[in-house]
Amino acid sequence: MMIPRRTLLGVALLGGAAALSVGLVCTPSTANPGAQARIGGAAPAFTVVDTNGKQVSLADFKGKTVVLEWTNHDCPYVRKHYNGQAMQGLQKKWTDKGVVWLSVISSARGEQGFVTPEQANKLTTDRGAHPTAVVFDTKGDVGRSYGATVTPHMYIIKADGTLAYMGGIDDKATTRLDDLKTAKNFVDTALDEIAQGKPVSTTTSRPYGCTVKYQS
Amino acid sequence: MRRMRSAPLLVFVLLSILGWQQPARAAAPASDLVKAELLAEPGAITRGQTFWVGVRLRMKEHWHTYWRNPGDSGEATSITWELPQGFSAGPIQWPTPTRIPVGPLANYGYDGETTLLSQITAPADLAPSSEVAINAHVTWLVCEKECIPGEAKLSLTLPAAAAASAAGSNDGPGAAFEAARSRLPQMSPWPARMDVTPDTLTLQAAAKGLQRDAIRSAQFFPFSETLIRHADPQTLAVTADGLSLELPRSALTIGTPNDARGVLVIDEAIGASTVRHAFALGDVAIVIAAPIGSLGTILQAALLALLGGLILNLMPCVFPVLSIKVLSLINHAGQSARQLRLHGLIYTAGVLVTFVGLAGVLLALRAGGAEIGWGFQLQSPIAVAVLAYVLFSMGLSLSGVFHFGYSLQAVGGNLAHRTGLSGAFFAGALAVVVATPCTAPFMGTALGFAMTQPAAVSLVVFLALGLGLALPFLLLTLAPQLVGRLPRPGAWMETVKQALAFPIYATVAWLMWVLAQQVGASQLFAAMIGLVLVALAAWSFSIWQTSGTWGGRAAAAVAVACMITTAVAVAGLQRDQIEASPAAQTTAAAGIEPFSQRRLDELRAENRPVFVNMTAAWCITCLVNERVALSTDAVKSAFAAGNIAYLKGDWTNRNPEITRILERHGRSGVPLYLLYAGGDEPVILPQILTAATVLQEIDRIRDRNSQRRADLPTSAKE
């Protein structure tokens, strides 16, 4: 009588362990976009490599305001903001004031927006862009942990490491250059408010643009 | 070869990257990713009238354009109209979208082809035989994996006429419009609401009585881009209450969302196949679901319930019960303290157990989907009548017509005796039962809170209410010195007792009034005869108690007979209540007859064409068919013109006659539509109806009948 019971127990334990390990293996892929990053919560930590081969961690910028800009230079929505010189203007204005601006490329190898470090640096020069650094997230881990869905998807992290803004860059979800003139830029407004020590009035908006070309 | 074919596409991509966009026209080059066309429904434009136009977008294989909410990325197609003076265009009427997964994200849009319909209204002073030029500037984003914005300037010239010309709707662009309209979501037949908590969203559609296994899947497409996480699964539950979809809430909407509108898509199993229905939820009530109360709020509710319970003792239905208990205490002030205490505790237990029982029934019914609150017992006419009879016999007993064996005066007996104790328990239960029609101040707030809480919290509130009800008597028995302070026993007690009968009679009168709202006049009369029988039974009972042998036996027999008759009358009340089902009610109104095999045979013997609609309240397809086809004016007038009898069979509850008809036509369920027109076998109409299909079948039988008449000129004269 004893042996069958023990066998049973063993089978149950094995089964449990198997279920547990399947669960563990599956967990990362079922992570919900948007589930982790929350306004007022701690911004997910990350360490990435920039276009000059330098390691960049969010932790390096403690005490500074950090802007994350998801980008894909071939996306028509990103092109609107660069062709109109709007994105470069915003980068220059705020990096001059000590804000850290990271342009994040989550496009997987072979997908639209994927570039080599050299191409990325050339794009920065050619377009007159002013980010603090352009960083690679080719595996998409950073993008997924922030819930970045589109380019351009914008995030602002306050000096204390909490998330202050996430969403679209402005309120005109189009590819028309003309709309830049009348659009209300949420990022500029939020950065102004943070600089003045005020609470951010608009903390979220609809992110619009092209789908981030994640590794599938 | 491959290269050659993709060359034009590459050129297009390059051109659009350079910001040069070629306006696509109706006859655009084949290399275009999107072919846009402007269509108008056939028929001339007339003054003051509204007509349909559509922008048809044909996408290259695997490419898609977007719905009004594009999902995680993308952009809705937009149309800017340029119309002659006085014309106005309505918004785009969006066809039901499909969900397009893109890696870990999801979009809502259209693959292959879509027609975006709009309605344009002509001015009232439109000159006839003028030409109307309609221009549409359409912009879109078309994506496969990568996205390309596009635009087209489309134009159309239409004639204006004094009167509308008949629209040929069976072929050409007319059919295209018919098809496009069939892709628009239907107005939802059910009210919907969105329950919102800081972390969850639950969409509830009050589709009562849906069959769980018939609903294959359901999905909600919200209008708001920032309401839900579009790519995450939505969890469906079908209860007696309707359909509920748990939606993954997006972090992009902080606080309470202000727009919960959208389209609900349901796949319903009909026999072996699946039918997709789309319902527009244009008015979704946003309900902020109460989070589980903090300890403070629970205590507050319990305190309110305790107060309410205390006050309940003063209500006309309960006060006499309590008073009698107190009177009997006065009568037996000499009991030992221990016996008194035991008595009070058992009375309290009776109150609490009954309250928990009632709360349990209430919570179980609510979990089952019934929308009920405190006083739910009074929704049943049987419960109201029984309560009235119980109170009435109590009143009679107080008036001295008869003596309730032990229950009310149990305290008077030996407290240690078994019947004395069970009597105390019974008295507690009785106090609760007679208290149920009443609501005391504070009680409503406390119970309202309890209803939104998990079962355990609800029970705490109910127990506090019960404790409040039991407390005055319990305190008296726990502190015998208080009993000593009560007035001395005497003849006044009998007078008080008799006086206490009158609040009880008043309660009975009120219950009869409640009953009058629930049943018809004849039923009410039966219920009141029941009161007379209760009085007769009470009187016979007292004779049996006091007199011997023959007279006593006869009296006992009368009492039993009265009680049986009353019970039968009360049981009859319910049957009267459930007889009218909603389906039967609508039938009577619309000149539609309820189905029966006999009526069908009669009509066919008269040679009248008959349309049979087998339906059920829980069948969504049936509901949709009735809305879009059977209850349209066109179909109704065609039925009238063709002298077609309309029989409607309601299969909501199983009906063997209908089941036989279904089986005869190879069906295991509804809907089933039959059109009998002479001959032996009826035409079976499809399970998905449009007004056009029904009209076509009616036309066909009319043609056939006139043919027959032409063949037999003599019989036509007879």
Q: What is this structure, in a nutshell?
A:
With 216 residues, chain A is α+β, with helices and mostly antiparallel strands. Chain A folds into 2 domains: 1-30; 33-211, 3-Layer(aba) Sandwich (Glutaredoxin).
The low-confidence runs of chain A, each spanning 5 or more residues with pLDDT under 50, are 1-35
Largest sheet of chain B: 5 strands, mixed
Which stretches of chain B of 5+ consecutive residues score pLDDT under 50? 1-31, 405-418, 575-588, 713-718
Query: What value does the average pLDDT of chain B take?
Result: 79
List how many beta strands of chain A DSSP finds. Answer: 9
Provide the CATH topology of the largest domain in chain A.
Glutaredoxin
Please identify which CATH superfamily of the largest domain in chain A we are dealing with. Answer: Glutaredoxin
* Assembly status: heterodimer
Number of E-state strands of chain B:
24
Beginning-to-end CA distance, first to last residue of chain B: 77 Å
- What would CATH call the architecture of the largest domain in chain A? 3-Layer(aba) Sandwich
What class, by secondary structure content of chain A? alpha+beta
| Discrete helix count of chain A | 7
- On the 0-100 scale, what is the average pLDDT of chain A? 85
**Rg of chain B (C-alpha, Å):** 36 Å
Overall form of chain A:
globular
Number of helices of chain B: 20
What do you see in this structure?
The complex is a heterodimer of chains A (216) and B (718). Chain A has 216 residues and is α+β, with helices and mostly antiparallel strands. Chain A folds into two domains: 1-30; 33-211, Glutaredoxin (3-Layer(aba) Sandwich), CATH 3.40.30. Chain A has seven helices and nine strands. Chain A has a seven-stranded mixed β-sheet with strand order 2-1-5-4-3-7-8, covered by helices on one side. In chain A, strand 7 (154-157) and strand 8 form a beta hairpin. Chain B has a five-stranded mixed β-sheet, with no helix packed on it. A five-stranded mixed β-sheet of chain B has the order 20-22-21-23-24, with helices on both faces. Chain B has four domains: 2-184, Immunoglobulin-like; 187-288, Immunoglobulin-like, CATH 2.60.40; 295-518, no CATH class; 583-717, Glutaredoxin, CATH 3.40.30.10. Chain B is of the alpha+beta class. In chain B, helix 4 runs antiparallel to helix 11. Chain B starts with a helix and ends with a helix. Helices cover 45% and strands 22% of the residues of chain B. The longest helix of chain B has 31 residues, at 337-367. Chain A binds chain B through residues 32-35, 37-39, 74-76, 79, 83, 111-112, 144, 147, 149-150, 166-167, 173-175, 203-214, 216, and chain B through 16-17, 19, 72-75, 102-105, 107, 139, 141, 143, 145-149, 225-226, 229, 231-232, 248, 250-254.
